[in-house]
Every structure is written in C-alpha cells, then in structure tokens.
Amino acid sequence: MNTDRFGLAGDDYVPDVAGDSAAIVEAFFDHLAVSLRDADLPDELFIGMRASLVELAAADEQRGVDESARYNLWMTLALVVAYRALRPRLGREVTVAALRAAFVEPLAEPVQAGTRAMLDAADDPFAAMVAVSKAREMYAFGAGFDFARTVDDDESYHLDVVRCFYHDVLVAHSAPELTPVMCEFDANWIRAIDPAKHGFRFERVITIGLGGTHCPFHWDRTES
C-alpha cells in the first residue's frame, strides 16, 4: 500500500498545487455537508457556497500574483464563503469549529502517513524535511508569502513567515479569526515527526494568525 499519496519522497519533489488545493476544497465542502447534517440546514446553502466561491475568486482575481497564489486564494476563499453562509445560522463559535474540522480532518491521515513514510524512508530525515519545506516555499506558497531564513545549515533550519497570504486575504474579507484554521492544517504533518526516531524536532511557538508578528518554522537536529 502506497502511504506517500503526495509524492513527498525523492529528491525531485514538487508540490501538485492544483491537485492539492482542489482536493482540500472538495473535501472541505463534503465534510461540512455531512458534519452539519443534523443542523437542519437547506441543501441549497451548500450548493450556494460552491457558486459563491467561483464568484468571489473571480472578483479577487488580482490577488493571484502567481500560480501558487491563485490556488491558495481558492482554498482561503472557500473558508470565507462558508463562514458567510453559516455564521448567521450557527453563530461564530460553532461555525469556526465546524470550518476547522472540515478543513483539517479530511486529509489528516494521508498527510501524516505521507510525511511519516517520507521521513521513515529517508537516509537523513532532517535533510529530507528541509528539502520538502524549500520545495513548498517555492512552488506551493510562492510570491504571496514572504520568508526569512534566519538559520540554514546542517544542524538547523529556521524559516520565518513574515507575510502570510492566507492572513492577508482573510483580513481583506473581515475574517482574520479564520487564519488559525490554516495554521492548524500544518499540525497534520507536524504530528508525523518523531524526534526520537527521526533525529530532529520542530517548533512553531506562535503564528501570525494567533497574534504573532511572524510564523517561526524551526527544525533542529536532536543528535549529531
């Protein structure tokens, strides 16, 4: 059984931004429809979310500064349209919880399994993780984000996100409270790291979405 659904292993890893974003958004809407079945919401509400996403993405087209930004915009605006549709009916707290579950849970297992398989198979798990991060910085995040590499050597890789595209879009649409949903998605691959087994640890003590000035993604070897 292939547990590396996202093709993380190997030196030639390039994220499939189009495929990944489409899978996330489809799983998100599907999860919402199922998880909120008991909330007695009309089917038209969920159909309308998809139509609203197409319209809002077209209206926000100027934010697509490169290919990566266009697909990241699609994912972020999916949260926006769902929030606008559900909050008046369910309230803010219940809606945010539902959006977090729908965005994070559907792909949690394959993301963790793929990351774990990649790390388990690597001769040097730390170097493999850094290579994946650098590939995602270039191809999955692109010009919509600003990064600062404060440490990049054989023992540590410290990357700070100093401008977050997701947060910028959500602020522009008066929904900054949804940024932590995007932050939580990262927990899927973070949980795959076993410092005792893989020889490195990961720290992200704060994020922009949680009130920080930046998001520190810090990897450090735990053994020489």
Overall pLDDT level = 93
Distance N terminus to C terminus? 33 Å
Main sheet strand line-up:
1-2-4-3
- Which class do the helix and strand fractions yield? alpha+beta
Beta percentage is: 5-15%
Number-wise, the strands total 4
Helix content: 55-70%
Shape: globular
Order of helices and strands: HHHHHHEEHHHHEE
Number of domains: 1
Biggest beta sheet attributes: 4 strands, antiparallel
Low-confidence stretches: none
Please report the number of helical segments. Answer: 10
The gyration radius over C-alpha positions equals 18 Å
Folded structure, characterized:
The protein has 224 residues and is of the alpha+beta class. It has one domain. Helix content is 57%, strand content 12%. It is built from ten helices and four strands; from the N terminus they run H-H-H-H-H-H-E-E-H-H-H-H-E-E. Strands 1-2-4-3 form a four-stranded antiparallel sheet. A hairpin with a 3-residue loop joins strand 1 and strand 2 (156-163). Helix 4 (92-104) runs parallel beside helix 8. The two termini are 33 Å apart. The relative contact order is 0.14.
Quick recap:
This protein has helices at 17-35, 43-59, 67-90, 92-104, 108-121, 125-141, 165-172, 179-185, 187-190, 195-198; strands at residues 146-152, 156-163, 200-203, 215-221. The chain is α+β, with helices and mostly antiparallel strands and 224 residues long.
Which SSEs are present, and which pair or pack?
Layout lengths: L16 H19 L7 H17 L7 H24 L1 H13 L3 H14 L3 H17 L4 E7 L3 E8 L1 H8 L6 H7 L1 H4 L4 H4 L1 E4 L11 E7 L3
Antiparallel strand pairs: 1-2, 2-4, 3-4
Helix pairs in contact: 1-3, 1-4, 2-3, 3-4, 3-7, 4-8, 5-6
